Each structure stands twice: as C-alpha cells, then as structure tokens.
Amino acid sequence: MIGDFGQPPKQERYDVRAALCKEYGTPPKLTVDDLQAPVLGNGEVRIEVHACGINFADVLIVQGKYQAKPRLPFVPGGEVAGVVSEVGSDVSNVETGQRVLGMSSQGGFAEEVVIDCRRVLAIPDSMDFKTGASFAVTYGTSHLALEHRACLKSSETLLVLGASGGVGLTAVEIGKAMGATVIGAASTDEKLGIVKSRGADFLINYVKEDLRDRVKEITGGVDVVYDPVGGEPFLQALRCMNWEGRIIVIGFAGGTIQKIPANYLLLKNCAAVGAYWGPYMEKNPDVLLCSLGTLMDWFEAGKIVPHISATYPLEDAGKALATLYERRATGKVVLTTRD
Ligand SMILES: NC(=O)c1ccc[n+]([C@@H]2O[C@H](COP(=O)([O-])OP(=O)(O)OC[C@H]3O[C@@H](n4cnc5c(N)ncnc54)[C@H](OP(=O)(O)O)[C@@H]3O)[C@@H](O)[C@H]2O)c1
To answer: What angle do CA 319, 324, 329 make, to 5 degrees?
Structure first.
C-alpha cells in the first residue's frame, strides 16, 4: 500500500449514542442520537465513557453564554470517567483497558469520547466511575484556589459561598483538610445540612440571615473568601474581610458579574484573586497535576468524600442540566451512559 505509507491507518467507523445540542437555549434542548464514533488522532485516547459529571460550564455552554461558543451541533460534557478502549501513537501515560478520568471541553455526553492524553489520568480501584467523573474539576478548582492562589493557612478562617454546590462543597472539605476554620453559606437549611456533613464549623443561611452581621457574630471577620456565586454575596463577603484577607473569584453562578470597590481592598490590605482552573492544563500543568495527585491521596485516605446527589441516564441530560440552573443541585450531578 505505497499510497498509504506514513498515513495513520483508516479507522473502522461505527455509531455511538450521544446527547447532542443542536441549538442554544434555556431550557437547553438536547437530543440523543446515534453519531459516528470520534476519530482517534496521534497523542489521543479513546475512552469508553461510563459516567460524565455535570458542571456549571456545561449549563452555560448549551445556553450559548460561556466564553467559548462551540459551533452547532455539538456534544456537551467536559468531565468523564471510563475505560481506555484505544490509544493513539505517542501515548505513554495510559494504556488500553485502564480505568481513567478524562478532562475535555466537550464530547462527554456520549458512549465514547476522544481526549488528548495529557488530559487523561488513571483512577484508583477504590474510585467508582461516577466519582471519577465528579472529581477533577471541582476538587481541582478548590484545591488550586485555596492552596496555590490564596495560600490558605491552618490558623485562618475561610468563608465559602454557595457552599453546598459542586465547587463550594469541595472548598468546604479542602478548607477543613488544610486545617482552617470553615464557615459555609448557602440558601436553604437543607443545603446547609449537607455543608455541615462535610465538616463546616459554622453555617450561614444567606437568604434568611445578613451575611455580614453573622460573620461578625461568629468570628469577627474572615481571612479568605471562596466565591463561586458573584454579585451581591461577593460584595457582602468583601465587607467581612480581615486585615490582609484574600477574596477568590471562582464564578458567577448567581448571574451577575460584580464590580469590585477597590477602596475595600486598600483599607484592609486585601487582595481579590482570580482562580480559573482549566487554563492551568496549558499554562502550568505541573501545578495542576501535583494538586490532583494530592487530592487522589486524600481521596484514598478518606480525607475527602465526594457527594453525588443525583444520577441521570444519558437520555435525561437536559433534566440533569436543569438541576444546576434551577439551583436545585447539591454536590455533583452525574450522567451515566451504560448500565
Ligand atoms: N474558576 C474555575 O475554574 C471554575 C471551575 C468550576 C466552576 N466554576 C464556576 O463556579 C460556579 C459554580 O459552579 P458549580 O459547578 O459548583 O455549580 P453548582 O453546583 O450549580 O453550584 C452553584 C451554587 O451557586 C449558588 N447559586 C446562587 N445563585 C444561583 C443561581 N441563580 N443559579 C444557580 N446557582 C446559584 C447555589 O447555591 P445556593 O442556592 O446555596 O446559593 C449553587 O449551589 C459557576 O459560575 C462555574 O462557572 C469555576
């Protein structure tokens, strides 16, 4: 076959089930179709997907509200766990048959996905697929934010907003694992019950109670704020900061991107710090991989216990996304693609 010399071998094509976004909208319109299995390239890994974690980014992407707007139609889903079914050339970190988690920007709401091998990690036997698909983004974001960006110390007090949500609950657990005193704030008493179960020392219902008054009452002030909600809760939290405090901007789940009054930063020598996890994969993978290594060790030692509140089959991908944008989700929501 002189003509094919140097070309990758032709791949056999077959169909896989996938949830497809054909138009942006709220509620998201997803349809499950049979699509041709993705083509595997050099340096890539094919994963037989067993579970796909839902993140707020997926909710924004299918509404056309995320910073990256994929061309329609596309398969959403950025965080999967499953079994490696094929590896491309130049892949040495994982092998066929291995149980892994994979981090991509899309393609996960499907029976199969192809991901760059640098974004695929082996998972321990003690980690089931649903947990594997719920782990990297949330724990990775919170650990990197608290340790690398805000340098949280064990002597300090941490306030977590949206503390029962995907990233929020992991920040509570990681704050406790780092030895800090943790105040968890959420919108309902039921959600606060989950925050308490993950070790928070103090709880605030920021719908019923005044956040600033309650923080003053509990600890007088906080050293670090972890904020995935944005808007008014951020501004309230900013007013609770101790001298040399750090307020971490994680996201804007509440829908409002706040403007920061810089005088508050100046008066108490505080810092507002952004923590955006995804780009670390390109900009500083060592920090990200070292952080994930620590988190895997903590998982195996039982120091962190992922909370999965709901599981949906692939056909109900739209319902799974709705639990997040309707503010009903706690911890993680996961799609399963196989029985
Ligand atoms: N920086 C990063 O690298 C990174 C990584 C992952 C996620 N994020 C961002 O972090 C935020 C949370 O993500 P997530 O996956 O943890 O989402 P999630 O599980 O849905 O949690 C969001 C939390 O925000 C609170 N919230 C307040 N107003 C809300 C509203 N109008 N709609 C929905 N939730 C509302 C909810 O708690 P209460 O009801 O208790 O207020 C909820 O628990 C998102 O903005 C996401 O984009 C950032």
So the answer is: 95
